[in-house]
Amino acid sequence: MLRILEKNEVPLQIGDLAHAMRIDVSVASRQVGALVRDGYVERAVDADDRRARTLALTDSGRELAAEAFAVWRERARHVFGDWSPDELQDAVLQLRKIADSVVRHHDTPDHRAMTGKGTTV
Q1: Model pTM greater than 0.85?
Q2: CB under 8 Å to 28, separation ≥6 — which residues?
Q3: Whole-angstrom Cα distance, residue 25 to residue 14?
Q4: What is the CATH number of domain 2-58?
Q5: Which of 23, 65, 77, 113 would bridge 6 by S-S if both were Cys, CB 3.0 to 4.6 A apart?
Q6: Are the CB atoms for 64 and 39 separated by under 8 Å?
């Protein structure tokens, strides 16, 4: 969540954040509430739609996002340090293919029938 907010150049509405994370808005809202309470995210009135609220990282939130990404990057370097660049590229391509397939089949009639739900984001 912090990484998504960090990468966006403009504040996001909660629905946009939930969509980017592929989670239900209610789940995103609870998580954002904790981040707001802890001072990492701030809510503001959307300049284009005064009924809506936007989300942006605070300075503390940007620091936490940078620290978390640095830890993730170091862990990835440790875990995949003995992989060749070609092996890493092949793995990335396969993971993207898996993710694309999951996303493509998420809101299909078969998925809705199996779960009893439609799209939640």
Answers
A1: no
A2: 1, 14, 17, 18, 21
A3: 7
A4: 1.10.10.10
A5: 65
A6: no
